[in-house]
Amino acid sequence: MKKPLIAIVLLIAASTTLIPSCKKKSSDPDPVTPPVATTSTICDGNGSGTFYPLTLNNTWHYQGTGTNAFTNTVTGTTVYSSNTYFTVESNLGGTMYLRKTTSGDIMAYNTGTSTEQMLVPASPTTGQSWVYTLDFAATRKVISTNASLNTSSCHYTGCLKIQEFDSSGAGKAVMYYKKGIGMISTDEIWPGYLVTNLDATTLH
Fold first, then answer.
1. Contact of 117 with 98, CB cutoff 8 Å
2. Shortest CA distance to 64 belongs to which of 173, 187, 172, 201?
3. SS3 letters for 117-174?
4. What predicted TM-score, i.e. pTM, was given to this entire model?
5. What integer best gives the mean pLDDT of the chain?
6. Lower CB count within 10 Å: N or C terminus of the chain?
């Protein structure tokens, strides 16, 4: 009568020994985690919806041919005529004072004339022009609200193209802007000859 009992004990012992062998071996590879989708800020912007994201420490680096390059950086804020402006400094020495109005227009303060002038309209229309006396210009004009631009970094579509004109009506610098990024291309160093394109940016 004891033989069946011994057989049952041996069967339980065997199954206890086999169960651990089904556990994951330490050498088994870990499950692969699918990559997280990322957005290229330089190509697609930061989602802010403005033509010039103004936040402290934002930077834009523009590269042309050879050593022709410059960087714009938001370094701080200052107050003019009761309005707070972001200070945007170029490593080449220029400084702009910019703010976004409640309607979304980007305004620039002219310290020489103590006046505020629009830099970029929030809702531009093709052919729209306005007085702009900074950077040796007299007016700014919207050339296109749906321009495309290819750079070494990105293929841009839906861009805003603006050109500056002097008091005689002669065309000067051309700028391209993309919502959520800011200015993505300009020939302001040497209008008509030297184009610098955005090739690095930090947007907060």
1. no
2. 187
3. EEEECCCCCCCCEEECCCCCCCEEEEEEEEEEEECCCCEEEEEEEEEEECCCCCEEEE
4. 0.81
5. 87
6. N
